[in-house]
Structures are given as C-alpha cells and as structure tokens.
Amino acid sequence: MKCLLLVDIQNGFCSGGNLAVPNGEDVVPVANRLIAEGGYDLVVASQDWHPADHGSFASQHPGSHPFEMGTLGGKAQMLWPDHCVQGTRDADFHPGLDVAAIGYVQRKGENRAVDSYSAFRDNDQAALTGLSDYLLERRVDVLDVCGLATDYCVKASALDAKAMMPGVTVRFIADASRGIDPAGVEAAIAEMSAAGVRIVTSADVTGAN
Ligand SMILES: [Zn+2]
C-alpha cells in the first residue's frame, strides 16, 4: 500500500501565518497534484496542534525571543513564535489544500511540556502519536513524505518513519516541501539520505518525467 504523508500544511506555516516558512504555500498545488496523480492508496496529514501555553513558545519563557535557543524539559529547544494554537485559523490546513482526500489526520504538539516535530513521536521520543501503528496496520510499504518545514517537521517525520517502520520504503518529495533555512534544508536532505530516505521529486512520483 502506497501512502502520502502531508506534514503540517497549515496556515501558520504559510505566508501570513505566525511561523511562516518562505513560500510555504507553494507546496499546496504540488501536494494537490500528488494526491490526484500520485497513485496513492491512502493520504494522511499531520497537524501541529498546540495549547495556547505550549512550552515551545518564546512567550512562555520570560525574557526570551522567538528563534532563540532555550530549554524545554531540560533539553535544548528552539523557541518559536506562538503558532498553530488549537482551534485558531493559524492551525487550520491551508484552504487551498484538498483536505477531502485526507483519510487520517495525526495531530501533534498537544503536550505543553515537549515539542513534537515528528508526526510519529515527541521530540524526547517518549510518547508515540500512534501514526506508525496506523500505517503498519494498513500494510503501508511505501511512504512519501512532504510538506512544511523540510528542516524541522518533515525531516523529523521522515527519519522517524525510517527508524520506526524498518520494512517501509520512505521517500522525501523535495519540490512538495519548503524549509525555514536554506543551509538547514541542505543538511536535512543529507541527513535523510544518509538514513536511507530516498530523495525524489513530484515528477518521479507521478511519472511526469
Ligand atoms: Zn509547533
């Protein structure tokens, strides 16, 4: 079974959002084309879904500013602007995304005490979201991962998919993803590739080449 995982294609990570990724919304038409033409048996999506007082927010650390390193649960943590707060427009999927095609939504980041870049488990790797069991129960053997942001949640999701579901082919779709920092994107692609994640384009997936 071939599955597409759309990572955090939410207003908060697109232009005008609280944690906008440069040109984040450009992934929307590519994702829609993949949904229509990628031959997937299943489409799932992750959704960053924070309480208003989430510990990754700089606003919860007096004297700190967004994009500074801080600590959360005793571990180094990038401090973010408040983003994707549960029930707000910022947390909604981008309105252009074909949400009707999404068969399962995995919310993450609900525990204020730990951040969750990966769609599969919290950053401290203690709590699983349940997505790996969901996919394995459905006998997914090819998982394509794309979305926002390449250097954080997409990378973490692809690496965890590879680590937690050893028999599954995991592919990162580069042109259906955007990152925060160009150097970080380059490093993320190298790290994913070294871990056995295949780096592909949407044209490779749809056979448009
Ligand atoms: Zn978040």
Automatic annotation (TrEMBL):
EC numbers on record: 3.5.1.19
GO terms of molecular function: metal ion binding; nicotinamidase activity
Biological process annotations from GO: pyridine nucleotide biosynthetic process
Gene3D superfamilies assigned: Isochorismatase-like
Stretches assigned to the Isochorismatase-like domain: 3-204
EC top class, as a word: hydrolase
UniProt organism field: Pararhizobium polonicum
Protein name: Nicotinamidase
Pathway(s) where this gene product acts: Cofactor biosynthesis; nicotinate biosynthesis; nicotinate from nicotinamide: step 1/1
A Pfam family annotated for this UniProt entry: Isochorismatase
Family that this chain belongs to: Belongs to the isochorismatase family.
Record CDD domains: nicotinamidase
Keywords tagged on the record: Hydrolase, Metal-binding, Pyridine nucleotide biosynthesis
Coiled coil: none
